[in-house]
């Protein structure tokens, strides 16, 4: 059984991405007891799936390592992975949260040696790589995963593969008898940091994401470019594995559209500009855009990318994509600067899909005030529940971290009032 000591002076953080980790660490470093609940087998969220940040083109691994070290060193922080908050009752200063914990089938004895993964034969689509590759039925989610413990897919429990994993483990870390459990936690304040999810490109029918292998999303392209990704960093076509020579980026794919996402996600333009630097300089890049959102410190980066000889900007809302020769997508539309119709063929098309909240109002465990896009509003009616990062709005990493720090301070104020009242 998972044992967690929590009181109404504890801060509960729901979601262990960059915002949740930031809020949890900042609150714990003020001396508060913090419990962080994360549904994935590891913390770090979607930031761990990025190859580089914009505009400096630096790697996320540095910041991740620092945050993980801060988390490990702080005795005030208790992290529970593979767990979801299913219910919250009470009021500010006195909440009770119900948490469902899924079995990992690997206990704390795990050394990360990988013997269980090598023994298992079954393979599954790798969700960390957005299904672009495969992983074993016993696996480490990614090289920097925290906790650095393997996971056994529940689909192999009861099979010979599961027993092979158990037999291969020399330290007795495989526990095939683990069961799902439910616990209750007390908390004085709750920080909701469940982050964002990419808009479902299958819904954008004219772009053929569900029909054409060589139409992918920006988050999938990020994994292709990563040397630790499914192709070892080679940007290739999913249809035939050939390296690309011509890539198109379609901006506002499903965004600023009454049929899809009403809002602008703020980051998509910069993400595509960043991704335009990933291929080699002999790869032709075409960016189809309505307008480019590159303000303040991002303007210089925009100008740098725009000056590259292999990058071309086409002011147009792409109307449709059809299948051309050799499975190459053909983009149809009108260039709104010259009002010329085009039918442009590309090796690979990347849809810059927007951000939407990971948890919608219908599945939220407590009444809370949200706006029409589904983001949590900073409303007094939310009591001691505070959004952090992309639960509050579409934000880049820098702004998400800043917002999470603010959420931590507000939560600390709530539990300070509880402590003051009881004192």
TrEMBL record:
It is an enzyme of class 1 (oxidoreductase). GO terms for molecular function: 4 iron, 4 sulfur cluster binding; CoB--CoM heterodisulfide reductase activity; metal ion binding. It comes from the Bacteria. Its EC number is 1.8.98.1. The keyword Protein transport does not apply. InterPro entries: FAD/NAD-bd_sf, HdrA-like. The keyword Cell membrane does not apply. It holds the Pfam family FAD_oxidored. Keywords: 4Fe-4S, Iron, Iron-sulfur, Metal-binding, Oxidoreductase. PANTHER family: COB--COM HETERODISULFIDE REDUCTASE IRON-SULFUR SUBUNIT A (PTHR43498:SF1), FERREDOXIN:COB-COM HETERODISULFIDE REDUCTASE SUBUNIT A (PTHR43498). This is Heterodisulfide reductase, subunit A. The lineage of its organism: Bacteria, Pseudomonadati, Pseudomonadota, Gammaproteobacteria, sulfur-oxidizing symbionts.
């Amino acid at each position: 059984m998972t044992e967690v000591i929590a009181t109404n002076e504890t801060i509960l953080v729901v979601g262990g991405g960059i915002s949740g980790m930031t809020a949890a660490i900042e609150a714990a470093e003020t001396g508060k007891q913090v419990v962080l609940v994360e549904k994935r087998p590891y913390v770090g969220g979607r930031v761990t799936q990025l190859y580089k940040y914009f505009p400096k083109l630096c790697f996320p691994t540095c910041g991740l390592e620092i945050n993980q070290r801060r988390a490990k060193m702080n005795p005030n922080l208790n992290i529970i992975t593979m767990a979801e908050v299913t219910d919250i009752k009470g009021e500010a200063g006195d909440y009770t949260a119900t948490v469902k914990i899924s079995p990992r089938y690997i206990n704390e004895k795990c050394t990360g040696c990988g013997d269980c993964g090598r023994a298992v034969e079954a393979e599954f689509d790798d969700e960390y790589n957005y299904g672009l590759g495969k992983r074993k039925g016993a696996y480490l989610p990614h090289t920097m995963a925290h906790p650095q413990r393997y996971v056994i897919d529940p689909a192999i429990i009861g099979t010979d593969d599961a027993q092979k994993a158990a037999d291969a483990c020399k330290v007795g870390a495989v526990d095939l008898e683990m069961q799902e459990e439910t616990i209750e936690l007390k908390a004085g304040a709750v920080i909701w940091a469940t982050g964002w999810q990419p808009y479902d490109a299958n819904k954008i029918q004219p772009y053929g994401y569900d029909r054409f292998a060589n139409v992918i999303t920006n988050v999938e392209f990020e994994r292709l470019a990563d040397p630790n990704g499914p192709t070892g960093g080679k940007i290739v076509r999913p249809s035939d594995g050939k390296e690309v020579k011509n890539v198109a980026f379609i901006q506002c794919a499903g965004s600023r559209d009454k049929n899809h996402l009403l809002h602008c996600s703020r980051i998509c333009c910069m993400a595509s500009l960043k991704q335009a630097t990933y291929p080699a300089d002999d790869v032709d890049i075409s960016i189809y855009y309505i307008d480019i959102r590159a303000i303040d410190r991002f303007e210089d980066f925009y100008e740098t990318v725009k000056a590259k000889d292999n990058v071309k900007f086409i002011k147009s809302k792409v109307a449709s994509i059809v299948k051309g020769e050799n499975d190459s997508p053909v983009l149809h539309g009108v260039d709104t600067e010259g009002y010329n119709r085009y039918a442009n063929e590309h090796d690979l098309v990347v849809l810059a899909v927007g951000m939407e909240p990971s948890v919608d109002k219908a599945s939220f465990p407590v009444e809370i005030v949200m706006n029409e896009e589904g983001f949590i509003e900073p409303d007094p009616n939310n009591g001691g529940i505070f959004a952090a990062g992309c639960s509050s709005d579409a934000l880049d990493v820098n702004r998400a971290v800043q917002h999470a720090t603010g959420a931590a301070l507000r939560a600390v104020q709530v539990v300070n009032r509880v402590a003051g009242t009881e004192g």
